[in-house]
Specification:
7 strands; 4 helices; alpha+beta
Length: 141
């Protein structure tokens, strides 16, 4: 079963290992730790999620807050989503993307870059609004 939780300071080692698997040498250790600290802390712009399959960490996601002046509402943009290879055929990423707009009630939308995954994202309710795909968030209760 796919689940997710916001990245907490206690998750730092796990998330850094996942980031290293994704980025390899392109992102040095200092930058990985800095990014995880921001995702797990009170950063007003960056937020992270740790994805699980059962109790195993399966991947992570990082989102940035934005603002759409035309709608006068906050927005969220997916900056990075990575799922470890053993979990890719289990729809881990799709489950998270389908639930993502619901994690931000009151936001105008969640924006996801369309690189290569547009057909899957459209099936999950995202709509093309160049250069990305967007899904409306539910109203805040």
């Amino acid at each position: 079963m796919t689940t997710w939780q916001r990245i907490l300071p206690a998750d730092a080692m796990t998330v850094c290992a996942l980031m290293e698997a994704f980025h390899g040498d392109r992102l040095d250790e200092r930058r990985r730790w800095e990014t995880v600290d921001r995702c797990a802390g009170p950063d007003p712009l960056l937020e992270g999620w740790l994805l699980y399959e059962g109790i195993e960490p399966a991947g992570y996601a990082m989102l940035c807050r934005g603002y759409d002046p035309a709608l006068a509402r906050e927005t969220m943009r997916l900056e990075e989503l990575w799922v470890a290879p053993p979990f890719r055929r289990r729809r881990t990423g799709e489950c998270f993307l389908a639930a993502l707009p619901g994690l931000y009630p009151g936001c105008a939308y969640v924006e996801v870059p369309s690189a290569g995954s547009a057909p899957v994202l459209r099936m999950l309710g995202y709509r093309t609004e160049a250069p990305a795909l967007r899904a409306a968030c539910p109203e805040r209760k």
